[in-house]
Amino acid sequence: MxxxxxxxxxxxxxxxxxxxxxxxxxxxxxxxxxxxxxxMQTGSALQAYWLRAVAVPxxxxxxxSFDWYRAxxxxxxxxxxxxxxxxxxxxxxxxxGIALILGAFTGIAAFAxxxxxxxxxxxxxxxxxxxxFTLAVGMILAWKIxxxxxxxxxxxxxxxxxxxxxxxxxxxxxxxARVPAFTR
Length: 184
What we know:
Mean pLDDT: 88
Strand content: under 5%
Number of helices: 10
Low-confidence stretches: 175-184
Shape: elongated
Helix content: 55-70%
Distance between the termini: 43 Å
Order of helices and strands: HHHHHHHHHH
Radius of gyration: 20 Å
Number of strands: 0
């Protein structure tokens, strides 16, 4: 069942739907942030989000359960890193959305999206993050076919994978891989 779901080209239509849906979610989130000066100019929206995350309410549990993650966010707040980090979050969301919609480097884009979802979850923000994280993990597992109906169909054979040399480095007559001069 796992081979069929994650490795059979017949499932490419399912992963196309999942990939475009998740990509549109990321692109919509990025669009809202791009249009908001508190994200793209001052970073105050991210600052407020981090401040809420690190706050420890008196009667209840804090939003962040792990002290090391709270310390990381506190250090980022103290250093004023929210100004550039807000831009990084916004542009990363846009890049993940575009890559997923186009089906370009799908496994890498899904991993980046899952990493951002994980960080939102660590900061105590549930929303749609668990659902999108689960879909991203599925795309990571199905990376060979998740981008089959997209740019990966041509990019992966052209650029190569860890177990196959790149097509652009093969000789035409023998089909053997050439070793680039800088690795000799």
